[in-house]
TrEMBL record:
Amino acids binding ATP: 228-232, 247-256
UniProt source species: Balaenoptera acutorostrata
Compartment(s) where it occurs, according to its Swiss-Prot or TrEMBL record: Mitochondrion
Protein family according to the UniProt entry: Belongs to the NnrD/CARKD family.
Name of the protein: ATP-dependent (S)-NAD(P)H-hydrate dehydratase
Amino acid sequence: MAVGSGFGAVRGCLGVLNRAFPLHTARSVTDMEAALQLVRNVVPPLAAWQHKGQAGRIGVVGGCPEYTGAPYFAAISALKVGADLSHVFSTQDAAPVIKSYSPELIVHPVLDSPSAVQDVEKWLPRLHALVVGPGLGRDDALLENVKGILEASKARGIPIVIDADGLWLVAQQPALIQGYQKAVLTPNHMEFSRLAEAVLGDALDGRDRCRAVLSLSRALGNVTVVQKGEQDVISDGEQVLTCSQEGSSRRCGGQGDLLSGSLGILAHWALLAGPEKTNGSGPLLVAAFGACALTRQCARQAFQKHGRATTTTDMITELGPAFSRLFETSAGADGGAAPTGELRL
Ligand SMILES: NC(=O)C1=CN([C@@H]2O[C@H](COP(=O)(O)OP(=O)(O)OC[C@H]3O[C@@H](n4cnc5c(N)ncnc54)[C@H](OP(=O)(O)O)[C@@H]3O)[C@@H](O)[C@H]2O)[C@@H](O)CC1
Ligand SMILES: Nc1ncnc2c1ncn2[C@@H]1O[C@H](COP(=O)(O)OP(=O)(O)OP(=O)(O)O)[C@@H](O)[C@H]1O
Ligand SMILES: [Mg+2]
């Protein structure tokens, strides 16, 4: 099957959308497999010729006195998916707490400083992607700083994943992200309604989800939107994908943070690989599909082991095995692949 046609490109025709994406009927295994194959195409090889940092340096903007878990989940997930370095830019109080969860994270206690924007800006040349919002909170002064960080990141063309309270900010000021096609928004149910109300004047509750996500993406100027839920619906305003990888029925907090952190590194890899590797589909669409599938596979594996007691920490433990299962084969795991970003399958 040709992968491009299997996804059913949607260009301005909602009739086609309905035929291509019957959300309530089971998507074929072939479609899921074809989408997973595109993700595999953008995963860089592990090879001896690489130096530290080449696989990706990710920044997470979030972490305030109330929420320290969310930025940790996002930043550690980026590392465990394959980033070499993961930075967190949090408030001063939150930083030692986040550091204490993991020696692997680089934590900057700058977000509530008067010089926050400059403090983060000096790191931007060394970052490949930003994840903005996990555990950020909604303090006005913090959000003002984050506005400046978003503007500085856009000016540098850095891919930005926006989640949680970052989406709250975007719902207040959609112009912040309007038309920036290196942005991916990852709303949950509530966050999506808020954004749709702000951007389209209608929360779109109860509407066909594929149409709703496509409409929001288009209204934002083809910003990629990932609406999380029983199935994840992803659109870049051109195409719509659904991810129905089996997950779990546990709805513990933090799973969205795992997704946004994973997407930070996958977005960098997909943009680096370019549309040739994604068979014409948008690289961020493919990256988003990969992050959704991975998060759900982690949920499934963790639930098999821990059942009702499953928490996001258990899912993070599954990131390595879940990634291998979905995206790697024995040929790719030993670093034998050519330095083209493509794994041999
Ligand atoms: N360990 C940590 O540090 C964690 C910290 N976190 C951080 O918390 C901050 C706030 O994030 P958030 O997601 O709680 O805020 P928001 O979008 O206002 O949702 C609030 C309300 O929306 C509703 N609702 C949600 N989903 C729904 C659904 N599917 N379907 C229907 N309703 C739904 C639901 O309403 P309720 O059921 O109470 O009526 C819910 O209470 C943010 O910084 C985030 O990163 C988290 O990442 C978790 C781990
Ligand atoms: N009803 C569901 N059934 C299966 N998987 C789901 C369901 N709802 C959400 N998910 C999955 O859980 C993950 C997180 O989505 P969720 O809607 O919980 O995000 P969130 O509310 O932002 O989470 P967080 O607690 O991190 O803020 C996604 O991978 C999504 O596919
Ligand atoms: Mg969330």
